[in-house]
Design goal:
By secondary structure, the protein is mainly β. The chain is built from no helices and 15 strands. Strand 4 and strand 5 form a beta hairpin. The two termini are about 25 Å apart. It binds the ligand CCCO[C@@H]1O[C@H](CO)[C@@H](O[C@@H]2O[C@H](CO)[C@H](O)[C@H](OCc3cn(Cc4ccccc4)nn3)[C@H]2O)[C@H](O)[C@H]1NC(C)=O. The ligand CCCO[C@@H]1O[C@H](CO)[C@@H](O[C@@H]2O[C@H](CO)[C@H](O)[C@H](OCc3cn(Cc4ccccc4)nn3)[C@H]2O)[C@H](O)[C@H]1NC(C)=O binds next to strand 4, strand 5, strand 6 and strand 14.
Amino acid sequence: CFCKGLVLTHVNVKAGERIRVKGKVAPDAKSFALNLGRAGSDLLLHFNPRFDCHGDTRIIVCNSLSGGEWGEELREAEFPFQQGEETKPCRTEVMVKLPGDQEIKFPNRLGLEAVQFLSVEGDFGVKSIKFD
Ligand SMILES: CCCO[C@@H]1O[C@H](CO)[C@@H](O[C@@H]2O[C@H](CO)[C@H](O)[C@H](OCc3cn(Cc4ccccc4)nn3)[C@H]2O)[C@H](O)[C@H]1NC(C)=O
């Protein structure tokens, strides 16, 4: 079974701690997103792999959201995701470890000490989330 559109609050993840999200990319995935922050309107990291969305093909878009305003996008061309596969786009405090050895570092633009909010959106079915 898949959990789509998941929102967790009060997760209280601090710098150096790790969140490991495991799940499956939908076979017909267009895009999915993992969001970390204080709340839905204040995101430290919006991590958005796009298979075919907003005119983007197989690009990872990362951004921050502050008071509902998007920051400047960071676009990563390395795209280690396949539609229909199991994957672990795991992440730590604004350092995102991707499948394989690839990492994306993203500035802590909101200067959050801890993350309270985690959400998963789009074509990704969550199978497990681990905090350690
Ligand atoms: C060239 C001038 C226009 O630029 C375009 O402006 C769009 C609107 O700002 C940019 O798209 C937005 O990029 C944001 C990150 O910078 C977010 O990804 C915006 O999506 C927010 C969102 C989440 N969700 C839920 C969701 C997420 C994933 C899959 C399914 C539902 N629905 N909308 C998404 O609409 C889009 O990335 C941007 N493209 C470029 C090339 O800059």
